[in-house]
Design brief:
Arc Repressor Mutant, subunit A; 316 residues; 3-stranded parallel sheet; Jelly Rolls; globular
Amino acid sequence: MPRKPRQVIEYRVYELLLDFPVLLLDGDRWRISEVKRNNLHFHNCLEIGLCHSDSGILLMREGPLRFQAGNVTCIPQHIPHTTYSAPGCSSRWSYIFVDLRELLRELIRTPENFELTSFSADDYEFLFDAHTHPKVHFLATCILEELRAEKPNYRITVRALFVALYYEFSRIFSIRAEQAAEAPAKRKNTLVLAPALNHINAHYMNRITVGELADMCHLSTTHFRRLFLSIMGTSPLNFINTTRIDRAATLLQATQDAVLEIAWAVGFSSVSSFNRYFARIAGVSPREYRNRHLQGGMTPKRHRILRYSGWMLPEP
């Protein structure tokens, strides 16, 4: 019997503006097909989705969640998922991608977890109904309207609204945590890896061992490796190096720093290992990548974790 092909996890990278790291994907073309995708995907930033019409399925690794018009989704970075509409439907959405840590850095000066993944699997909600959580729907809609209109000082308003939305999410998850403490649930999901993923995202430039990542998730090293491969579709080491290469690609595009300086900045101890990993993931050397980007002809090579420049059009 032929082996069943392993599911591919797509890594979709959004290069957000440094001074205002918010991206809006909006308009009538943003309709989600009824076609169920075989591949899940995850992002390098937080995704807020607003469903305007119809219904369908938000599919996580742990199973399906049913959505309908008026729902708001909150998908942290590194959480594999996909969306498809109910048969005969083509649901319309608006998507907001945001780096909360950078956006709110000057407004919240406490060591908050801006990825919203410090909560356990049993405490987290991905889908918010307008009737059950009217404040989430109201704040998300206000943010959407501000981003659409771009009136004077809209960036200041958007930042303030995101502060309110962030704390509303935190309150909801905290209440769920209290409920789970009284009646613990059995469900587990991708958030069990959240401490390790957040650490990689924040400290990719430093030496990271699989053992310390496993300790952060309260797992044995062997079980951590197995679970990481099962959920993320790649090994911890490959994920760390992919994260480093993604950051390096941004530096190659945005700066004139030497390749050696960029290799050190993203955590590689030698330029030879950097060149080897970069070519494996991007398909070309760092120098060639920079040259092609300047000429406008760079197309990333696809691998088990696929690096996209972002998901800028709806899937057919």
